[in-house]
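Forwarding the complex inputs:
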Amino acid sequence: MSTAFSAAKFSTQPFSTISHDSPLVFAKPTSQFFGSTRKLRLTSSSKFNLSRRSGTVVAVSDYVKQKTSKSTTSLLITKEEGLELYEDMVFGRAFEDMCAQMYYRGKMFGFVHLYNGQEAVSTGFIKLLKQQDSVVSTYRDHVHALSKGVPARAVMSELFGKTTGCCRGQGGSMHMFSREHNLLGGFAFIGEGIPIATGAAFTSKYKREVLKEADCDHVTLAFFGDGTCNNGQFFECLNMAALWKLPIVFVVENNLWAIGMSHSRATSDPQIYKKGPAFGMPGIHVDGMDVLKVREVAKEAIGRARRGEGPTLVECETYRFRGHSLADPDELRDPAEKDHYAARDPIRALKKYLIENSLASEAELKAIDKKIDEVVEDAVEFADESPIPARSQLLENVFADPRGFGIGPDGRYRCEDPKFTEGTARV
Amino acid sequence: MAAIFQGVGAAATLSSSPSNSFDSNNSFLSPPRSFSVGKGASFSVIRSGGILNLNSKGRRAQQLISNAVATKADSAAVSSSSKPGHELLLFEALQEGLEEEMDRDLRVCVMGEDVGHYGGSYKVTKGLAKKFGDLRVLDTPIAENSFTGMGIGAAMTGLRPVVEGMNMGFLLLAFNQISNNCGMLHYTSGGQFTIPIVIRGPGGVGRQLGAEHSQRLESYFQSIPGIQMVACSTPYNAKGLMKAAIRSENPVILFEHVLLYNLKERIPDEDYICNLEEAEMVRPGEHVTILTYSRMRYHVMQAAKTLVNKGYDPEVIDIRSLKPFDLYTIGNSVKKTHRVLIVEECMRTGGIGASLTAAITENFNDYLDAPIMCLSSQDVPTPYAGTLEEVTVVQPAQIVTAVEQLCR
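Prediction (whole assembly, two chains):
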């Protein structure tokens, strides 16, 4: 049944044909360019061990095959699960589309990075988590926030810069945080969230081993892109996580482009999953346009972390349908490449799977679509009507302990000055 | 990062306490004496140019170098049993503070290079890994940006880490995390996450350590919103500030100095902390306010002896809190003396002294009888050669000249 999900065959240049068995994606364009000469092709017999130690590199088709052969039914999900996945992906898509609309209407500003096309990764992973598990993301974080459970109203208000936003309007598009849902951000510089995620995983281990909370098996997921995989913090954290067997999963959303820099032009060895075994952890490559495949891999990786077996590096080959941000004219990407991935839209694919396997009817899915539209509309209305932050909010969260502003000339702590609560004091 | 040598070996054992009174017919005129090579010996160095000698062979013993760490004459001769408290060296005071806080709160943990099995390059974490285990005193790989970020992530999720930079200069690699996440994350998350982290380590100009190991990062970090910076200078305030920093909900950067680790002092037995936002009155006076911190405190006190002999009465304040400034203590002093001299080890450009000058001018301009003078290190990468290194930092003779000029 996984065949319903395989990529469409495609024969135009520059993409190679893709077989059912191989989840992998494309070879480099034939035109001369200065970049990696490594081929990106995974053959179907791609289960091989690259490490003398514990790392294994596996093609996900093998996982899926194993799973389907073992289960009594040949389906990967139940109806409830299917509907949950569908709803979450549609939610992400509809929300992001609404963001684009609102941006062009002047309701939100700055840098806004949309997630269209990558929903399978967020949904596939985050829907397997508990509330106490943590997620760390990058600036492309709206959908991670939504999948983790942050209300659409809170996210939309944050984007509008209103005080009812999840960060009181102080974070914006690139800094979504939620203590309640354990969303640890939202980071503007790539790579800087990965150590934070490593720290959260460290806390989980610490709680179990030092604070003796024996049942603490919280897992942390760190999401980041292909561009980040050339950054020092990525490698440093792979090392530390494997060294101390931290309960973390490093999820690479390889959408092949870092603004205008193609992954193969920036990376000597573009196969990111292979970098896992170099640090002593498994590296897995998965078709990130297929939510069921992602989910299977995620189950394994999260399970590993929960059992204390250590970190995993998962490379999800995915694609963003829009530009890097709403300010990106997106002129460099080949239209043929875009079409190729548009044909593999994860939402359409899941819909097809659900209907073909009689897990849901057309009507049920349409009802979900409608419901999501209403939720998103409601979020916009709520955000529109919410108040903008008052001046008094300016100085409120600079320090957790406001004595950090120091002692003023009159001997009192400056935070006791009424101008502080009004937000008009000069600091 | 190259391994750096540690401050082992001969220690000039010195005492200092917050309220010194200086005996003008003291030390300064007495002949040079040799001093002990062992740690734990408790007699003071009495010579006009005291030396803090890090070399166990006492190579410098014959050289009269005027870059002094302060001396206090006779109190070490007083029997140790007549006063309560216990004597220890500054690095031991830091260790004591850290250990007490780790005993008190299981969430306090240490991360850094060589803090565990090695006991810390400056022995601040000596013995802690044996006592608390390898997870609570974590030896990290050499990846400052990442392990500082890891500390911040741990702080966000409930722990209270103390991150050690083996040398403060190495934290330049952690600037991304310190600026973006440590300082700003509480604000950008709308107050949802607190970062009760302490980042500490030795900095400052040492003994011919070369330019890169002699940096003063307080000037680079001071603009970061959302952090507090404190500098310790005596065993008493080292322990007090360490404990206060660990207990604080704000991220605190604690600056230690490579040359001060072997200072000796008697400190109270009971639990105490030093307020993070307060400055310390070292020597009350009438004629001029001298504001200083960290190692320069000792150059100032050295100069103070000379000044007293010349008939001046300087008021010396160790500002301790580099961000925010204690404008109350400083202001009261300015209102009394009307003259300000700032003595610091930062570079001339953009240093703590520059900010302090601005702050005083803004707040107390009416009380000043003369322009504020600021003595800082030269805007020069610290040279290796000893003679050149000596003149990059402020020496007591310059301080004396400056005061004479100010008080004219």
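Residues 1-81 of chain B have pLDDT under 50 and may be disordered.
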